Amino acid sequence: MRKHLGKVSFALLILTFTVLAFGYGKIRGDIGTGILIIGVGLSLITALISEKGRWKTITISIVSIVIGVYAFLIIAFFFGLWEGF
Fold first, then answer.
1. CA 48, CA 67: separation in Å to the nearest integer?
2. Least enclosed by CB within 10 Å: which of 3, 41, 59, 85?
3. Along the 85 residues of the chain, how does pLDDT read in single tens digits?
């Protein structure tokens, strides 16, 4: 089963982004953030548990990029608010 967890983690990541794409404008922002955190977190956990392979590498790379962009946007938002005062 562990050899298929890389594919499962990638599928969870795609499912998370699909739910967010189809829910755009229909779900509140905090619920969307919760869905994103839970989906990316579950995808990261299943990728870390899986065996080495292409799917594990792809999923961990995408999750790292998503977390990095999200952290950058949060920091940019805080500095944007700070400059206004």
1. 15
2. 85
3. 888 899 999 999 999 999 989 988 888 888 888 998 999 999 999 999 999 999 999 999 999 998 899 899 889 888 887 665 5
Whether the CB-CB separation of 61 and 49 falls below 8 Å is answered with no
Domain parsing of the chain, residue ranges: 2-84
Token pair for residue 76? 């940019």
| Residue of 23, 29, 19, 12 whose CA lies nearest to 63 | 12
CA angle 42, 17, 27 (to 5 degrees): 100
Beta strands in the chain (DSSP E): none
Q: Is the CB of residue 9 less than 8 Å from the CB of residue 47?
A: yes
- Residue 60 burial (C-beta neighbours within 10 Å; 0-12, 13-18, 19+): middle
